[in-house]
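fyi for ur records
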Amino acid sequence: MNKNLRPAVVAGNWKMNKTPDEAKALLGEIIPLVKGADCEVVACVPFVDLLVALEATKGTNIKIGAQNCHWEKSGAFTGEVSAEMLKAIGVDYVIIGHSERRTLFGDNDLTVRKRTRAALDAGLKVILCVGEYLEQREQGITTEIVRLQTKIALLGVSAEELKNIVIAYEPVWAIGTGKTATAAQANEVNAAIRELIGELYGKAAADAIVIQYGGSMNAANAEELLSQPDVDGGLIGGASLKAKDFSVIVSEANA
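which gave:
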């Protein structure tokens, strides 16, 4: 992290976990543990938990995010939720392009761009996920893949709009597998993303953008990962469902 240039953002991605009552209980545990954190703290919860989460975190330093949104404002899209709907209830953030959405539900670079555009237009902050598969890393094309994903997603995004985007590098091979990129590997890719932002938007924008690491960051490895100059926080999966573990990561981001 380099807090002289940009804040850290630690966001929990709860995935498909927790009923509304369970969400309220978990947030009740987390709130006192992260009170006063000098990094941005976000909980991205299932759609059915959003209203409960927003009420539970009212007046606290925790922001609430959703895990996806559709690119249209309304229409015949059964099972989908629009960015405007999320904004209307008070949601701050939305995750776009998570590897599970790409791998399991057909999201691709084009739909990620469209969802990103819709979220920005609605006034949401975007956590934009990019990352490579294991075979792509083994082929030595990680940088090319991540640059391409990022460049397509940001097509048409202005420098001013970029201020509402957080990029999360999440190697697909490290999502939910217990495997983690080394701190050096994570920093190398994050630095490549920052270099691309500099090419597209200039050095000031590159210095200012928050780039998280999102591949199985946990209480045990957070200190090492967050000590890297280009790792500005984390998109946390399993560890975000454990109040103590999540608070440890937040504490490391405060360091």
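The chain is about 45% helix and 15% strand. thats all i got for now
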